[in-house]
Amino acid sequence: MAKAKKLPSGQWRTLVYSHTDGNGKRKYESFTADTKKESEYLAAEFAMNKKKSSGKKVMPTFKVAFETYIDSKSNVLSPSTIRGYVQMKSYYNELDNVLLSDINTQLLQSWVNELSKTHAPKTVSNAHGLVVSIMNFFDCKKVTVTLPAAESVTYHIPNDEEIQRIIEYLKENDMELLKAVYLAAFATLRRSEIVGLSANDLDVHNNTIHVHRVRVINKDKVFVDKNTTKTKSSDRYIQIPSFVMDEIKDCQDKVVTISADNITNRFGRMLKKLKIGHFRFHDLRHYSASIMHALGIPDQYIMARGGWSNDKVLKQVYRNVMDDYNKQFVMDTNSHFEKMQHKIQHKK
Protein backbone atom coordinates (compact mmCIF):
# COMPACT_ATOMS: atom_id res chain seq x y z
CA MET A 1 0.00 0.00 0.00
CA ALA A 2 1.30 3.46 -0.96
CA LYS A 3 2.37 5.65 1.94
CA ALA A 4 1.49 9.31 2.28
CA LYS A 5 4.15 11.99 2.64
CA LYS A 6 3.72 15.28 4.41
CA LEU A 7 4.10 18.37 2.23
CA PRO A 8 5.63 21.71 3.33
CA SER A 9 2.11 23.10 3.33
CA GLY A 10 1.13 20.66 6.07
CA GLN A 11 -1.09 18.54 3.81
CA TRP A 12 -0.47 14.90 2.99
CA ARG A 13 0.10 13.48 -0.50
CA THR A 14 0.03 9.88 -1.73
CA LEU A 15 1.25 8.86 -5.20
CA VAL A 16 -0.21 5.77 -6.87
CA TYR A 17 0.99 4.25 -10.14
CA SER A 18 -1.62 4.77 -12.85
CA HIS A 19 -0.25 3.52 -16.16
CA THR A 20 2.62 3.58 -18.64
CA ASP A 21 1.96 5.88 -21.56
CA GLY A 22 2.61 5.20 -25.23
CA ASN A 23 6.17 6.54 -24.91
CA GLY A 24 7.04 4.11 -22.09
CA LYS A 25 6.85 6.70 -19.30
CA ARG A 26 5.25 5.72 -15.99
CA LYS A 27 2.36 7.94 -14.90
CA TYR A 28 1.11 8.46 -11.32
CA GLU A 29 -2.06 9.80 -9.74
CA SER A 30 -1.67 12.21 -6.81
CA PHE A 31 -4.08 12.29 -3.83
CA THR A 32 -3.73 15.22 -1.44
CA ALA A 33 -5.71 15.62 1.79
CA ASP A 34 -5.55 17.33 5.18
CA THR A 35 -4.72 14.10 6.99
CA LYS A 36 -2.45 11.17 6.25
CA LYS A 37 -5.27 8.69 6.72
CA GLU A 38 -7.58 10.48 4.30
CA SER A 39 -4.86 10.77 1.62
CA GLU A 40 -3.99 7.07 1.86
CA TYR A 41 -7.67 6.16 1.81
CA LEU A 42 -8.24 8.06 -1.44
CA ALA A 43 -5.17 6.40 -2.94
CA ALA A 44 -6.28 2.95 -1.84
CA GLU A 45 -9.74 3.54 -3.31
CA PHE A 46 -8.19 4.51 -6.64
CA ALA A 47 -5.91 1.46 -6.60
CA MET A 48 -8.84 -0.85 -5.86
CA ASN A 49 -10.92 0.58 -8.71
CA LYS A 50 -7.91 0.39 -11.02
CA LYS A 51 -7.45 -3.27 -10.14
CA LYS A 52 -11.07 -4.00 -11.04
CA SER A 53 -10.54 -2.49 -14.48
CA SER A 54 -7.01 -3.83 -15.00
CA GLY A 55 -8.23 -6.04 -17.83
CA LYS A 56 -8.49 -2.99 -20.06
CA LYS A 57 -5.78 -2.67 -22.67
CA VAL A 58 -3.50 0.37 -22.42
CA MET A 59 -3.31 1.99 -25.84
CA PRO A 60 -0.20 3.66 -27.27
CA THR A 61 -0.11 7.22 -28.54
CA PHE A 62 -0.95 7.70 -32.21
CA LYS A 63 2.71 8.45 -32.99
CA VAL A 64 3.87 5.14 -31.53
CA ALA A 65 0.95 3.29 -33.14
CA PHE A 66 1.82 4.86 -36.53
CA GLU A 67 5.40 3.59 -36.38
CA THR A 68 4.35 0.18 -35.05
CA TYR A 69 1.80 -0.27 -37.84
CA ILE A 70 4.29 0.63 -40.58
CA ASP A 71 6.94 -1.71 -39.15
CA SER A 72 4.43 -4.56 -39.01
CA LYS A 73 3.52 -4.06 -42.68
CA SER A 74 7.03 -3.48 -44.04
CA ASN A 75 7.32 -6.97 -45.56
CA VAL A 76 3.73 -7.12 -46.79
CA LEU A 77 3.01 -3.81 -48.49
CA SER A 78 4.98 -2.47 -51.45
CA PRO A 79 7.97 -0.19 -50.75
CA SER A 80 6.22 2.68 -52.53
CA THR A 81 3.14 2.27 -50.29
CA ILE A 82 5.31 2.33 -47.16
CA ARG A 83 7.14 5.37 -48.53
CA GLY A 84 3.80 7.08 -49.09
CA TYR A 85 2.81 6.42 -45.47
CA VAL A 86 6.08 7.88 -44.19
CA GLN A 87 5.59 10.97 -46.34
CA MET A 88 2.20 11.55 -44.67
CA LYS A 89 3.72 11.56 -41.18
CA SER A 90 3.56 15.35 -40.82
CA TYR A 91 -0.22 15.28 -41.39
CA TYR A 92 -0.72 13.75 -37.94
CA ASN A 93 1.07 16.28 -35.70
CA GLU A 94 -2.24 17.13 -34.03
CA LEU A 95 -2.82 13.46 -33.13
CA ASP A 96 0.73 12.34 -32.32
CA ASN A 97 0.53 12.60 -28.51
CA VAL A 98 -3.07 11.40 -28.20
CA LEU A 99 -3.73 7.89 -26.91
CA LEU A 100 -5.59 5.81 -29.48
CA SER A 101 -8.26 5.15 -26.87
CA ASP A 102 -8.86 8.90 -26.58
CA ILE A 103 -9.45 9.48 -30.30
CA ASN A 104 -13.17 10.18 -30.65
CA THR A 105 -15.45 11.61 -33.32
CA GLN A 106 -15.04 15.21 -32.18
CA LEU A 107 -11.23 15.06 -32.14
CA LEU A 108 -10.91 13.21 -35.44
CA GLN A 109 -13.42 15.49 -37.18
CA SER A 110 -11.45 18.52 -35.99
CA TRP A 111 -8.30 16.99 -37.47
CA VAL A 112 -10.08 16.29 -40.79
CA ASN A 113 -11.36 19.88 -40.91
CA GLU A 114 -7.90 21.35 -40.38
CA LEU A 115 -6.23 19.07 -42.94
CA SER A 116 -8.94 19.90 -45.49
CA LYS A 117 -7.98 23.58 -45.38
CA THR A 118 -4.63 22.91 -47.04
CA HIS A 119 -4.99 19.58 -48.84
CA ALA A 120 -7.12 18.11 -51.61
CA PRO A 121 -10.07 15.82 -50.75
CA LYS A 122 -8.23 12.78 -52.10
CA THR A 123 -5.22 13.48 -49.87
CA VAL A 124 -7.49 13.91 -46.83
CA SER A 125 -9.28 10.68 -47.68
CA ASN A 126 -5.99 8.78 -47.97
CA ALA A 127 -4.68 10.22 -44.70
CA HIS A 128 -7.93 9.35 -42.92
CA GLY A 129 -7.82 5.85 -44.39
CA LEU A 130 -4.46 5.27 -42.75
CA VAL A 131 -5.86 6.42 -39.38
CA VAL A 132 -8.70 3.90 -39.75
CA SER A 133 -6.25 1.11 -40.64
CA ILE A 134 -4.08 1.89 -37.61
CA MET A 135 -7.07 1.97 -35.24
CA ASN A 136 -8.38 -1.30 -36.66
CA PHE A 137 -4.92 -2.84 -36.23
CA PHE A 138 -5.07 -2.01 -32.50
CA ASP A 139 -8.72 -3.11 -32.17
CA CYS A 140 -9.94 0.38 -31.32
CA LYS A 141 -13.55 1.44 -31.37
CA LYS A 142 -14.90 2.65 -34.71
CA VAL A 143 -14.93 6.44 -35.07
CA THR A 144 -17.07 7.95 -37.83
CA VAL A 145 -16.35 11.34 -39.40
CA THR A 146 -17.47 13.30 -42.46
CA LEU A 147 -14.86 13.65 -45.20
CA PRO A 148 -14.76 16.42 -47.83
CA ALA A 149 -16.64 15.63 -51.03
CA ALA A 150 -14.48 14.05 -53.71
CA GLU A 151 -13.48 16.30 -56.57
CA SER A 152 -14.51 15.40 -60.09
CA VAL A 153 -11.49 14.00 -61.94
CA THR A 154 -10.87 15.41 -65.39
CA TYR A 155 -8.29 13.66 -67.53
CA HIS A 156 -6.58 15.39 -70.43
CA ILE A 157 -5.71 12.69 -72.91
CA PRO A 158 -3.56 13.35 -75.97
CA ASN A 159 -5.00 12.77 -79.42
CA ASP A 160 -3.40 10.87 -82.28
CA GLU A 161 -1.84 13.99 -83.78
CA GLU A 162 -0.09 14.88 -80.52
CA ILE A 163 1.19 11.31 -80.09
CA GLN A 164 2.61 11.43 -83.62
CA ARG A 165 4.41 14.71 -82.90
CA ILE A 166 5.85 13.30 -79.68
CA ILE A 167 7.14 10.16 -81.41
CA GLU A 168 8.70 12.11 -84.29
CA TYR A 169 10.51 14.37 -81.84
CA LEU A 170 11.75 11.54 -79.61
CA LYS A 171 13.08 9.52 -82.53
CA GLU A 172 15.50 12.36 -83.18
CA ASN A 173 16.23 13.45 -79.61
CA ASP A 174 15.58 10.88 -76.86
CA MET A 175 15.45 7.15 -77.64
CA GLU A 176 15.17 6.08 -74.00
CA LEU A 177 12.09 8.22 -73.45
CA LEU A 178 10.71 7.00 -76.79
CA LYS A 179 10.80 3.42 -75.50
CA ALA A 180 8.97 4.49 -72.35
CA VAL A 181 6.32 6.34 -74.38
CA TYR A 182 5.86 3.32 -76.66
CA LEU A 183 5.31 1.01 -73.68
CA ALA A 184 2.84 3.37 -72.00
CA ALA A 185 0.85 4.45 -75.06
CA PHE A 186 0.81 1.18 -77.01
CA ALA A 187 1.15 -1.45 -74.25
CA THR A 188 -0.54 0.36 -71.29
CA LEU A 189 2.39 -0.04 -68.87
CA ARG A 190 2.75 2.09 -65.74
CA ARG A 191 6.03 3.92 -65.04
CA SER A 192 7.07 1.46 -62.33
CA GLU A 193 6.34 -1.44 -64.69
CA ILE A 194 8.32 0.17 -67.52
CA VAL A 195 11.47 0.64 -65.43
CA GLY A 196 11.01 -2.85 -63.97
CA LEU A 197 10.84 -4.55 -67.39
CA SER A 198 13.97 -6.51 -68.33
CA ALA A 199 15.30 -8.48 -71.30
CA ASN A 200 14.13 -11.76 -69.74
CA ASP A 201 10.53 -10.50 -69.91
CA LEU A 202 10.57 -10.24 -73.72
CA ASP A 203 9.33 -12.96 -76.07
CA VAL A 204 10.67 -11.44 -79.28
CA HIS A 205 9.33 -14.15 -81.61
CA ASN A 206 5.74 -13.67 -80.42
CA ASN A 207 5.95 -9.90 -79.80
CA THR A 208 4.94 -10.51 -76.19
CA ILE A 209 6.11 -9.03 -72.90
CA HIS A 210 5.53 -10.36 -69.39
CA VAL A 211 4.68 -7.60 -66.91
CA HIS A 212 5.31 -8.93 -63.41
CA ARG A 213 7.95 -6.73 -61.81
CA VAL A 214 8.11 -3.10 -60.70
CA ARG A 215 10.99 -0.83 -59.70
CA VAL A 216 10.06 1.59 -56.93
CA ILE A 217 11.69 3.81 -54.30
CA ASN A 218 11.42 2.60 -50.70
CA LYS A 219 11.11 4.73 -47.56
CA ASP A 220 14.91 5.12 -47.46
CA LYS A 221 14.83 6.57 -51.01
CA VAL A 222 16.60 3.54 -52.48
CA PHE A 223 15.49 1.92 -55.76
CA VAL A 224 14.29 -1.66 -55.28
CA ASP A 225 12.89 -4.25 -57.69
CA LYS A 226 9.79 -6.02 -56.45
CA ASN A 227 8.45 -9.13 -58.17
CA THR A 228 4.87 -8.07 -57.66
CA THR A 229 2.78 -5.52 -59.50
CA LYS A 230 0.22 -3.00 -58.23
CA THR A 231 -2.67 -5.50 -58.24
CA LYS A 232 -3.06 -9.20 -58.94
CA SER A 233 -4.54 -8.38 -62.35
CA SER A 234 -1.43 -6.31 -63.16
CA ASP A 235 0.65 -9.48 -63.61
CA ARG A 236 -0.04 -10.03 -67.28
CA TYR A 237 1.26 -11.00 -70.73
CA ILE A 238 0.80 -8.36 -73.41
CA GLN A 239 1.19 -8.83 -77.14
CA ILE A 240 2.61 -5.57 -78.46
CA PRO A 241 2.92 -3.99 -81.92
CA SER A 242 5.96 -5.25 -83.84
CA PHE A 243 7.43 -1.73 -84.17
CA VAL A 244 7.51 -1.47 -80.35
CA MET A 245 9.30 -4.82 -80.01
CA ASP A 246 11.79 -3.76 -82.69
CA GLU A 247 12.68 -0.75 -80.55
CA ILE A 248 13.21 -2.63 -77.28
CA LYS A 249 14.43 -6.12 -78.27
CA ASP A 250 18.17 -5.36 -78.24
CA CYS A 251 18.36 -4.42 -74.55
CA GLN A 252 20.94 -6.20 -72.41
CA ASP A 253 19.29 -5.84 -69.00
CA LYS A 254 16.65 -3.20 -68.30
CA VAL A 255 14.50 -2.31 -71.30
CA VAL A 256 14.43 1.36 -70.23
CA THR A 257 17.52 2.53 -68.39
CA ILE A 258 16.26 5.84 -66.96
CA SER A 259 14.36 6.12 -63.66
CA ALA A 260 10.63 6.70 -63.27
CA ASP A 261 11.24 10.26 -62.02
CA ASN A 262 13.54 10.87 -64.97
CA ILE A 263 10.77 9.75 -67.32
CA THR A 264 8.36 12.24 -65.77
CA ASN A 265 10.81 15.16 -65.84
CA ARG A 266 12.01 14.57 -69.40
CA PHE A 267 8.46 14.03 -70.61
CA GLY A 268 7.32 17.33 -69.10
CA ARG A 269 10.20 19.27 -70.66
CA MET A 270 9.47 17.69 -74.04
CA LEU A 271 5.80 18.76 -73.94
CA LYS A 272 6.85 22.34 -73.23
CA LYS A 273 9.34 22.30 -76.09
CA LEU A 274 6.70 20.98 -78.48
CA LYS A 275 4.12 23.43 -77.05
CA ILE A 276 1.69 20.61 -76.37
CA GLY A 277 -0.79 21.16 -73.52
CA HIS A 278 0.42 19.59 -70.30
CA PHE A 279 -0.70 16.08 -69.41
CA ARG A 280 0.81 13.38 -67.21
CA PHE A 281 2.98 10.58 -68.56
CA HIS A 282 0.47 8.23 -66.90
CA ASP A 283 -2.24 9.63 -69.19
CA LEU A 284 -0.63 7.75 -72.07
CA ARG A 285 -2.21 4.64 -70.53
CA HIS A 286 -5.57 6.37 -70.66
CA TYR A 287 -4.91 7.35 -74.28
CA SER A 288 -4.45 3.67 -75.09
CA ALA A 289 -7.65 2.73 -73.24
CA SER A 290 -9.67 5.45 -74.97
CA ILE A 291 -8.50 4.34 -78.42
CA MET A 292 -9.39 0.73 -77.70
CA HIS A 293 -12.80 1.84 -76.47
CA ALA A 294 -13.35 3.93 -79.60
CA LEU A 295 -12.48 0.87 -81.69
CA GLY A 296 -15.25 -1.06 -79.95
CA ILE A 297 -12.98 -3.38 -77.97
CA PRO A 298 -14.80 -4.85 -74.91
CA ASP A 299 -13.97 -3.36 -71.53
CA GLN A 300 -13.00 -6.78 -70.17
CA TYR A 301 -10.13 -7.02 -72.67
CA ILE A 302 -9.07 -3.39 -72.07
CA MET A 303 -8.94 -4.05 -68.32
CA ALA A 304 -6.89 -7.22 -68.83
CA ARG A 305 -4.40 -5.49 -71.14
CA GLY A 306 -3.97 -2.49 -68.83
CA GLY A 307 -3.96 -4.43 -65.58
CA TRP A 308 -6.98 -2.60 -64.15
CA SER A 309 -8.73 -4.56 -61.40
CA ASN A 310 -12.07 -2.76 -62.00
CA ASP A 311 -13.65 -0.40 -64.51
CA LYS A 312 -13.76 2.70 -62.26
CA VAL A 313 -10.82 4.40 -63.99
CA LEU A 314 -12.02 3.36 -67.42
CA LYS A 315 -15.40 4.99 -66.84
CA GLN A 316 -13.69 8.23 -65.79
CA VAL A 317 -11.49 8.08 -68.88
CA TYR A 318 -14.44 7.45 -71.21
CA ARG A 319 -16.37 10.30 -69.63
CA ASN A 320 -13.59 12.85 -70.09
CA VAL A 321 -11.28 11.91 -72.94
CA MET A 322 -13.40 11.37 -76.03
CA ASP A 323 -13.57 15.07 -76.97
CA ASP A 324 -12.16 14.67 -80.47
CA TYR A 325 -14.51 11.83 -81.25
CA ASN A 326 -17.47 13.57 -79.63
CA LYS A 327 -16.83 16.70 -81.71
CA GLN A 328 -16.95 14.60 -84.87
CA PHE A 329 -20.17 12.88 -83.73
CA VAL A 330 -21.72 16.29 -82.97
CA MET A 331 -20.63 17.63 -86.33
CA ASP A 332 -22.10 14.61 -88.12
CA THR A 333 -25.37 14.96 -86.18
CA ASN A 334 -25.71 18.70 -86.79
CA SER A 335 -24.75 18.25 -90.42
CA HIS A 336 -27.60 15.77 -90.82
CA PHE A 337 -30.09 18.20 -89.26
CA GLU A 338 -28.76 21.09 -91.36
CA LYS A 339 -29.26 19.08 -94.54
CA MET A 340 -32.75 18.15 -93.43
CA GLN A 341 -33.61 21.80 -92.73
CA HIS A 342 -32.12 22.81 -96.07
CA LYS A 343 -34.41 20.38 -97.88
CA ILE A 344 -37.44 21.71 -96.00
CA GLN A 345 -36.60 25.29 -96.98
CA HIS A 346 -36.27 24.32 -100.64
CA LYS A 347 -39.73 22.75 -100.61
CA LYS A 348 -41.30 26.05 -99.58
Automatic annotation (TrEMBL):
GO terms for biological process: DNA integration; DNA recombination. The keyword DNA-binding applies. Keywords: DNA recombination, DNA-binding. InterPro entries: CB (IPR044068), DNA_brk_join_enz (IPR011010), Integrase-like_cat_sf (IPR013762), Integrase_catalytic (IPR002104), Integrase_recombinase_N (IPR010998), Tyrosine_recombinase_XerCD (IPR050090). Transmembrane segments: none annotated. One of its GO terms (molecular function) is DNA binding. Coiled coil: none annotated. Residues 60-139 form the Core-binding (CB) domain. Residues 152-331 form the Tyr recombinase domain. Belongs to the 'phage' integrase family. PANTHER family: PHAGE INTEGRASE-RELATED (PTHR30349), PROPHAGE INTEGRASE INTD-RELATED (PTHR30349:SF64). This is Integrase. It comes from [Clostridium] polysaccharolyticum.
